[in-house]
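Weekly puzzle thread! Below is a chain. First person to post its structure in token form gets bragging rights.
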Amino acid sequence: MEITTKFRLVFVTTDSIENAKNMAKILVSERLAACCSIISNVTSVFSWHNKIEESHEYILMIKTSNEKLNTLENRITELHSYEVPEIIATHITEGNLPYLKWMTDSLSD
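Winning reply:
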């Protein structure tokens, strides 16, 4: 494993597979994401406007770099159907060196 601090894993939920696939394709084609994995069949329970809500959602796991994070967040906000999209980023602290190299190549302009 290679120790790194230059990559992020970003989690985004959305209400439809179509929206998830559309965002994923755009983010990868614009080189804001190296890869987007879509997880289906997620149930989210949350408070919205003082009411407990339950929603069937899809999670995008987006692999990106620190330097692309702000642009990625802005683009997700533009593409997302939610008024307040969930965009949560965490550092990737270790990873398979060939995969990290592939990420670097995939995110290069």
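Puzzle host: Confirmed. Bonus trivia for everyone else. DSSP finds three helices and four strands in the chain.
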